[in-house]
Specification:
3-stranded antiparallel sheet; 18% strand; 158 residues; alpha+beta; single chain
Length: 158
């Protein structure tokens, strides 16, 4: 029998939100975990709203476990409408809160998502040119050494 946390993770995996590259992103952040081999990239697009620069949309790609994918999915929804500063102030626990409390052996998944978010937004917060991360970052496949001539098929069994 699945626990409520496992059910929420399975629901997030069955219908992940905001998966894939985001064309014209204003910021891109990538982080990897040598402990578990997970890797996550996050793209962020901003908009002006009532005189504030807020996150309009965020997307992600992940080579990681189901929990990392679930946390990234809920986190991209959670940061929409926040300023870079507000999003940077969110902890991994806050980013994964919609799923419920993660067990100790899965906390690194929330930290992975937090790291990708900080990687994307730290230059934003420091007023670095947004163009630094626009579309020029290598894809996750390129970083893993998978060339254009090779393809990877990922299958998630329910």
């Amino acid at each position: 029998m699945e626990t409520p946390l496992e059910q929420r993770i399975q629901q997030a995996i069955a219908n992940p939100k905001n998966v894939g590259e985001l064309a014209g992103a204003d910021a891109v952040g990538t982080v990897g975990s040598p402990d578990c081999g997970d890797m996550l990239r996050m793209w962020i697009k901003f908009k002006d709203e009532n005189g504030r620069r807020v996150i309009d949309r965020a997307t992600f790609q992940s080579f990681g476990c189901e929990t990392a994918i679930a946390v990234a999915s809920v986190a991209t929804e959670l940061i929409a409408g926040k300023t870079a500063e507000e999003a940077l102030n969110l902890s991994g626990a806050e980013l994964s809160a919609p799923l419920g409390a993660l067990p100790p052996m899965k906390i690194h998944c929330a930290q992975l998502v937090e790291g990708a978010l900080k990687s994307a937004l730290a230059p934003e917060q420091a007023n670095a040119p947004a163009e630094a991360g626009k579309g020029n970052a290598p894809t996750l496949f390129e970083q893993l050494g998978v060339g254009v001539e090779k393809h990877v098929k990922v299958v998630i069994n329910k």
